[in-house]
Amino acid sequence: MATVNQLMTYLEERIPKSLSMPGDNDGFSLIPHGEKEVTKIMLALDVTLESVKAAKAAGAQLLVTHHPTIFAPLYSLRDTDAVGKRLIAAAEAGIALAGYHTRLDAAKDGVNDTLCALLGIEIEDSFENGLGRVGTLPSPISFGELAARLESALSTRQITGMDVGRPVHRIAVVGGSGKSAFYNAYLTGADTFLTGEAAHNTFLDARDLGMNLICATHYRTEVIVLPTLERIIGEGFPHIRVVTYFDEKF
């Protein structure tokens, strides 16, 4: 038997808060019944009404995500607010919520390690307080070839970018939203920055600094980490069934 509280303790040890970026509100955000037995866990990138509904239908007692449910302080809990609706739905279903955000970006085999592995990037260093990765491909490729590899590896055609005409060889990687990490990525000496999404001014900065920028969507560059979460849970609680919710709208 394993309880919600036991899962919380285990996950905090395996994916420690020390890896989180400052101000990140990750970890457990809702525990309706701490001593409730956990027989099934649902994994998803986000806590949404649909993922909570899927967890309830699957009979899961815990929904573990990459993104935290609560990003900013809550001063009330209302069903007229999107976050409130999600929390109320989970609480009414007796489902605990936990999200491991930037700590899972930075962790071994986390978001950015997985992105590098999928593209064959040999990691040489980290940046952005240990969150990002920088490394090289076995041989240079064109911007178009990198886009094609991402489409295949991440099953998406929603690739955008700024091709400055440089061959792609040394790549800085930050999954999800990497706009705030762009300049630190540039300082690594990389010719290309790979992320999920970036602001308009980041595209302009990339062009003027002569650095390729390629964005493969926030969702697709991060959902690849769910197998890592499944493996971590399985190593500690092999008797608990783990199922995954994939949001087809992304």
Account of the protein in words:
- The protein has 250 residues and is α/β, with parallel strands linked by helices.
- 36% of the residues lie in helices and 24% in strands.
- It has 2 domains: 4-103, Udp-n-acetylmuramoylalanyl-d-glutamate--2,6- Diaminopimelate Ligase, Chain: A, domain 1 (3-Layer(aba) Sandwich); 108-219, 3-Layer(aba) Sandwich (Udp-n-acetylmuramoylalanyl-d-glutamate--2,6- Diaminopimelate Ligase, Chain: A, domain 1), CATH 3.40.1390.30.
- It contains 10 helices and 11 strands.
- The strands form 2 sheets. It has a 6-stranded mixed sheet with strand order 5-6-8-9-10-7, with helices on both faces. The protein has a 5-stranded mixed sheet with strand order 1-4-3-2-11, sandwiched between helices.
